[in-house]
C-alpha cells in the first residue's frame, strides 16, 4: 500500500526528516509515536503531498506507483485521506456541500454517516466554524467515512476529545481501516499518530514505530512500545536500540 524509501524532507530550508524507511502492506494499520517536534506531522503531510514540505531525496510509492512528485489532489484521488491535528475553519463552505463534493455521487451515505457521527445538525454550518474539539474530530472522521480512502492517515485523533467522543471516534476509525466487505480483496490501511494510545483500545494495530529527531528509532509491537514510553519515557526506547 505504502512504501517510503530513504525519505529526506526539509521545511523552510531546514531538514526535518532524515532517511525515513517505512513499508505498510495492504490491510495493515501502523501507529506512529514520538515526542513533540520529532517530525511525525511532517511525515504525514509529506506523504499527503502538502506544499512547504520539500522532499530533497528519497521516494514515496503508493499502491506500487511513484507519487513523490504528485500534487495533493492527485494523491487524494488515487486513494489517500488524512485527518488533521488542527484542521482549518472554512468560512462560506457548508459541511454538507463539502461531503457532497467528496461522496463520489453516493449522497445517500451522507445522511447515514452524519447520523452515525452525531453530525446531522451540522450539515448546514460552515466547516468547523464554532465547533468544539470533539465536534471537529467527529467532522473529520465523517469526511473520511464519506471519502472512503484506501489509505488513511490520522494525526492524533484522540487530541482534545472527551471519553464519550473517543469511543465514537475510535469505533468509526476501526471501520475506516478494516477490510471492505463489499468489495472482494479490497483491503484498507492506515498510519495513526498517537500520544495517549487510547486509539489502540478500538483497533488492532499491526506495527508501531517511534520517531525521534526526524528518524525512526524503533519498530515493534505498538502496545509494547507505548508501555515502555509510558513507564520510562522516549529516551529508554532510543537507548534500547543502541
Low-confidence stretches: none
What do we call the CATH homologous superfamily?
P-loop containing nucleotide triphosphate hydrolases
So, CATH architecture? 3-Layer(aba) Sandwich
Roughly how many Å apart are the termini? 30 Å
Fraction of residues in β-strands: 25-35%
Gyration radius, in Å: 18 Å
Q: Could you say which structural class the secondary elements and strand pairing correspond to?
A: alpha/beta
- The portion of residues assigned to helices is 25-40%
Q: How are the strands ordered across the major sheet?
A: 6-9-10-3-11-12
Total beta strand runs? 12
CATH top level assignment: Alpha Beta
Shape from CA axes? Answer: globular
Most strands sheet: 6 strands, mixed
Annotated CATH topology: Rossmann fold
The string of secondary-structure elements, in order, is EEEHEEHEEHHEHEHEEEHH
Number of domains: 1
Domain ABC transporter: 2-238
Pfam family, one: ABC_tran
Keywords: ATP-binding, Nucleotide-binding
InterPro entries: AAA+_ATPase, ABC_transporter-like_ATP-bd, FeS-cluster_ATPase_SufC, P-loop_NTPase
Kindly summarize this structure in a few lines.
About 35% of the residues lie in helices and about 30% in strands. With about 240 residues, it is an alpha/beta fold. One of its GO terms (molecular function) is ATP hydrolysis activity.
Give a structural overview.
With 242 residues, the chain is an alpha/beta fold. The chain has one domain: Rossmann fold (3-Layer(aba) Sandwich). It contains 8 helices and 12 strands. A 6-stranded mixed beta sheet has the order 6-9-10-3-11-12, with helices on both faces. It has a 4-stranded antiparallel beta sheet with strand order 2-1-4-5, with helices on one face. A two-stranded antiparallel ribbon has the order 7-8. The longest helix is centred in the middle third of the chain and has 15 residues, at 133-147. It is globular. The chain starts with a strand and ends with a helix. The relative contact order is 0.18.
